Amino acid sequence: MLDRLKEEVYQANLDLPKYGLVKFTWGNVSACDRDSGLFVIKPSGIAYDQLSAKDMVVVNFDGEVVEGEFSPSSDTATHAVLYKHFEEIGGISHSHSMWATVWAQAGLDLPAMGTTHADTFYGAVPCARFLTEEEVNRGYEVETGKLIIETFEKRNLDVMAVPGVLLQGHGPFTWGKDAKSAVTNSVILDEVAKMNLFAKQLNEFAEPLPQRILDKHYLRKHGKHAYYGQKPST
Amino acid sequence: MLDRLKEEVYQANLDLPKYGLVKFTWGNVSACDRDSGLFVIKPSGIAYDQLSAKDMVVVNFDGEVVEGEFSPSSDTATHAVLYKHFEEIGGISHSHSMWATVWAQAGLDLPAMGTTHADTFYGAVPCARFLTEEEVNRGYEVETGKLIIETFEKRNLDVMAVPGVLLQGHGPFTWGKDAKSAVTNSVILDEVAKMNLFAKQLNEFAEPLPQRILDKHYLRKHGKHAYYGQKPST
Amino acid sequence: MLDRLKEEVYQANLDLPKYGLVKFTWGNVSACDRDSGLFVIKPSGIAYDQLSAKDMVVVNFDGEVVEGEFSPSSDTATHAVLYKHFEEIGGISHSHSMWATVWAQAGLDLPAMGTTHADTFYGAVPCARFLTEEEVNRGYEVETGKLIIETFEKRNLDVMAVPGVLLQGHGPFTWGKDAKSAVTNSVILDEVAKMNLFAKQLNEFAEPLPQRILDKHYLRKHGKHAYYGQKPST
Amino acid sequence: MLDRLKEEVYQANLDLPKYGLVKFTWGNVSACDRDSGLFVIKPSGIAYDQLSAKDMVVVNFDGEVVEGEFSPSSDTATHAVLYKHFEEIGGISHSHSMWATVWAQAGLDLPAMGTTHADTFYGAVPCARFLTEEEVNRGYEVETGKLIIETFEKRNLDVMAVPGVLLQGHGPFTWGKDAKSAVTNSVILDEVAKMNLFAKQLNEFAEPLPQRILDKHYLRKHGKHAYYGQKPST
């Protein structure tokens, strides 16, 4: 069942330790199949070097396991809520990567301070508030997903133009058109979080990236006038 | 004698350089056998690439060598005091890992600022005071063990819920049910110490992790209602 | 066409990930052939592990592709402007390397704070201002090249004595007599940017490197009285 | 000539990049033979992967080349002055390692803030002043050596109890009984420089390591009552 997607999700999970984003069994990546309304996610708490593609768990958009020998990631319900609400999302990555987590623990939005940021995130990456007592009791993981939706709606953000969020006191979620791009965005978010932290330390009065440069860099890589990379026909 | 335990302790010692926690011969890991009232520890000052499992030294809970060709770690007496007092502890790890040592040198408790911390440490990791002149003269390593006990008793901490301590001006000790988990806790402590340092730098007014989130994260991984990872039957 | 130069440029591009200066497809290195008035540059957005020397693109000093299956780097026009104006430059390297980018995002010149800097850069590395709205609209990459020229002319800097620049909010460009030395200068710039950041944090009143030491270190490696390294005849 | 020493010096030089202390051809390690009054040092500006033991250069204590195909390190005269003056020194290592250089560029002594420091350096590592114009003109490298001697004499320091120095605006020199221990001390100095930097940032009012702990840690590893490591007979 969904064997090709399982392989993609498995490979994308391996990219988390490869890029230094996780230690031990931390982190989880998933990808969805819109036709069947299902997604594939890493099992919970299994070491990366003991995983194989067939261990990936198949889950529906209500977070119910459809196929799989193992229990899925403890964050599965968060993934499910996001796939159900945001139809553009094809893959999701969660980690406690060092520098994005530093911003999350500081409880601050990650501002667009440079073109490395602007190449991928079209503006600040928002930091979502702590869950309330009531939300925690109602269901921590489902409510985390709902909070991400709330955060993007309140700020009127395009989920594909800003493909990530920081959860206060916790860490980042990123997403993309598939599992691989979700992890790529995790790597970039962490890199930018590190750059911006030290740039802010070096000059607390540093000017933010002007809108004209933000536009230029984002739009030369994204949208119909993009000219970065090779044309599809190549 | 205790060959299986020696192998476990040997492997756990090798994890110290593997995870970047030590340089040269620094650091030492031990594990105990409650039935015989003995523990196994790394010999002192021997390079990691020249160690083998059979070089591990067997010691009793009074710190006396029972078997072994080499002198045990110079910190052996500290391990002995901890095993003797805390019956839950099965393994102990000591290093001068960078970021935990930074907090130790700063003389500060490591506060619970994020869920990465809460997943393993149920609250702040305490920083124990400097030993007094009298304590140093009486026996540095034994008194270090007693100071750790004093620190946990004064603060009324559960040694397994907060499986680590910082020694002011020195570095961390961590422990767990066995040698491997003791080292895992060293890795996590160092990771969290780094995150928390930079989060504090980024926002000195960052809110501490609310108790509800600390509870949620700690208890979804520990205790009878835990749901992280795979069920034992799997 | 220019096969030897393509090989040099290909190898120099591989040095960017080797020295940890780039992630993914970021970064681009070129080198020019003064006789033919052409330069060779990396294609845009192709993964480093899928590149080969023959994929390098040949471009003239007006930024027009002369030979190549792929589209050249999106920053090609910046390279072209620099080769056309500065006849001493044989190779150019661009990346978003962490620490040089931190200074660029802070919008600050990188001062000469130590001999590691003075061994390669004969004085501060300038930070060029943001492009204006008009410049962005006129042509982002061409104008970036012109801005670098403006920056060096306004400050009366020798482009080979200070072989690099920071672009505000963006990142560094470095250059040298060939592709290899351009990348070497990128590595050194990033190393120095890191040193200087933390030295400034440690002591905001640190004395700048005295001119006599700056002279000594730069001139023992460069110019006709240099005595570092081996004599050409060796 | 001195083949065994050349091999030791060659291996110790390779340890500089192995431990991440140098990039490119930076850094140089030497060791001396007290019987012949000669020392062996790395040639200048040759890449580490192109070196072999036979390329090492033999020099006398006046800095004159006695044997060798290549020019010796440009810092050779500094090594010579130190060997001539300090008869206890058997090996010397020089690098621009990141964190020691940060302290050198900040122009500050590296204080003993923790036991990692105390295990090797019996007190603060001094930062020597900038050379004067006159000294630079008289002979930069010879005067650097004399300045190190002046620094240790003025402060009445034992060169073997504090086996290293920071040169303001430049970087560290360390030494030891042989080439290997000189490099080991470089590694430790850099590690401690990093720890102390961040500990100071975390708590600017952190207490210095009390003398009783400094004594305990230094003396359990050094001198006739040392009990760290294995007895020589083992």
UniProtKB/TrEMBL annotation, chains A, B, C, D:
Reaction it catalyzes: L-ribulose 5-phosphate = D-xylulose 5-phosphate
Pfam families linked: Aldolase_II
A GO cellular-component term linked to this record: cytosol
Entry cofactors: Zn(2+)
Keywords annotated in UniProt: Arabinose catabolism, Carbohydrate metabolism, Isomerase, Metal-binding, Zinc
Annotated GO MF terms: aldehyde-lyase activity; L-ribulose-phosphate 4-epimerase activity; metal ion binding
SUPFAM superfamilies cross-referenced by the UniProt entry: AraD/HMP-PK domain-like
Coiled-coil positions: none
Signal sequence residues: none
E.C. numbers: 5.1.3.4
Top-level EC class: isomerase
Associated pathway: Carbohydrate degradation; L-arabinose degradation via L-ribulose; D-xylulose 5-phosphate from L-arabinose (bacterial route): step 3/3
Domain Class II aldolase/adducin N-terminal: 7-197
Highest taxon, organism lineage: Bacteria
Protein's GO biological process: arabinose catabolic process
Gene3D superfamilies in the cross-refs: Class II aldolase/adducin N-terminal domain (3.40.225.10)
Family: Belongs to the aldolase class II family. AraD/FucA subfamily.
Function: Involved in the degradation of L-arabinose. Catalyzes the interconversion of L-ribulose 5-phosphate (LRu5P) and D-xylulose 5-phosphate (D-Xu5P) via a retroaldol/aldol mechanism (carbon-carbon bond cleavage analogous to a class II aldolase reaction).
NCBIfam families in UniProt: PRK08193.1, PRK12348.1
Protein name as it appears in the record: L-ribulose-5-phosphate 4-epimerase
